[in-house]
Amino acid sequence: MPHVEFAYTMAVHSTTNMCPFEIVYEFKPIAPIDLLPLPLHERTNMEASKRAAYIKKVHEKTKEAIELKAGRKAASMNKHRRKVLFEPGDLVWIHLRKDRFPLQRKSKLLPRGDGPFRVLEKINDNAYKIDLPASYCLSNTFNVADLSPFTSEDTLESRMTPFQGGRMI
């Protein structure tokens, strides 16, 4: 296990372009033997203030690299995401996920959405409380990814397949 730990701490991370060992201990050992304590006459001592300044500089550089990488990743992940906000009183469709609604999604021919339901409360931009009937027997808090807006043009027929009694195209 120590060899695995040493190998992991020696691997250069793509975000910081430094290995974790270098960030923490300010030097990069080549082999485990480099970690053994040096004899007193061969040790190099830096002043405490210089050493602290160097460590702060390395930590600031690491923090900047991590923030830059996180910003790029967030921009890449949010590129095609649309921001949808609902207000209390709005009508929404809910997406019936198989893991959350096992009884309503027993077959792939059953509808994937249900509604419209009224938004009761906005918890934050990503979570809303919905006015669900008691027959659902689950939490009424939903992520915005499971909600879609209901417009007056939407009708129950638009959510039905031809097999459910909708009109044939």
Task: Kindly describe this structure.
This protein is 27% helix and 16% strand. It is an alpha+beta fold. It has 2 domains: 2-34 and 48-77; 91-164, SH3 type barrels (Roll). The chain has a 5-stranded antiparallel β-sheet, with no helix packed on it. A hairpin with a 2-residue loop joins strand 2 and strand 3. Mean pLDDT is 80; it is low at 161-169.
Structural class label: alpha+beta
N to C succession of SSEs: HHHEEEEE
- How many structural domains does the protein architecture include? 2
Radius of gyration: 28 Å
N-to-C span = 65 Å
Highest-level CATH class of the largest domain: Mainly Beta
**CATH architecture group name of the largest domain:** Roll
CATH fold node name of the largest domain: SH3 type barrels
> Per DSSP, what share of the residues sits in E-state strands of 2 or more residues?
15-25%
Question: Taking all residues together, what is the mean pLDDT?
Answer: 80
User: Helix tally?
Assistant: 3
Q: How much helix is in the residues?
A: 25-40%
The neighbouring-strand order within the major sheet is: 4-3-2-1-5
The number of strands is: 5
Largest β sheet strand count, sense and barrel closure: 5 strands, antiparallel
Given as residue ranges, the uncertain stretches (5+ residues, pLDDT < 50) are 161-169
